[in-house]
Amino acid sequence: MPSRTRAAALVRAGAVRVDGTVATRPALPVSSATEVTLDAPDRSYVSRAAYKLAGALDALEVGASHGRPAPPVVAGARCLDVGASTGGFTQVLLERGAAGVIALDVGHGQLDSTLRGDPRVHVIEGCNARELQPEALPYAPTVVVADLSFISLRLVLPALVRAAPRADLLLMVKPQFEVGRERLGRDGVVRTAAAHESAVLDVVTTAVECGLRLVAVAASSLPGPSGNREFFCWFQRSAARGTASVQEAVRAAVADAAGRTAYYPADADAHPEAHGGNE
């Protein structure tokens, strides 16, 4: 394993087994006689964020296998990665067959060189997602993913909907950037389930106001670098309004410590007004 960070990320992603049992924490003591196995080869992702998106997509695949809505179609899709940074999300999308990815970030020079040189990747740097205009994009994305820091998703959602009006949006909610400072610990970590739930529901409320519906929500299988819990919300365009079942799904995701299960509002199987995908 090239680094302790990558090894720990694989453990938290549920990819490491100790004597046949999935390891739940990186600090688990083992002896020289212990059998340690890796369920899947290390993909050498450019960032640990990649494991988060991969885990969320896997959770949605599991949900689909149990009769829930099919997850966003990445294979063959033209995608938008908002807050691309070094490109972990972009890498996962390409790995899963995306025809192209727009890697958008407010910063400069962060995208990994292997992705920057990939002809399927269109790089847009120095762009504040809050100010994103459709004409700034080379095509209308059908799948949008986002991993943003130091800005609330609530401020960015209107621009994302304008830029990709028929897309599936799989967005990572970071409560530390959604709640007020008074709900942050001294270390910048959001610690209460009530605050986590409130942060996700606030984002869902804004999404509904933008004409979206929550299809599913899942806790990230990995925490943020400081230990903050994070959550993925899958939205589609729809005329449907939010229901009480949305709160139930969010509460279940917040209570899920493992973060490998997607939770669906009771009306998640209802057909939205317009469905994102490859059209």
UniProtKB/TrEMBL annotation:
RNA-binding in keyword set: yes
Swiss-Prot/TrEMBL GO biological process terms: methylation
A GO term, aspect molecular function: RNA binding
Superkingdom in the source lineage: Bacteria
Domain Ribosomal RNA methyltransferase FtsJ: 45-236
One Pfam family it belongs to: FtsJ
RNA-binding S4 domain location: 2-33
Matches recorded under PANTHER family: BACTERIAL HEMOLYSIN-LIKE PROTEIN (PTHR32319)
Similarity-based family: Belongs to the TlyA family.
Protein name as catalogued: 23S rRNA (Cytidine1920-2'-O)/16S rRNA (Cytidine1409-2'-O)-methyltransferase
Organism encoding this protein: Flavimobilis marinus
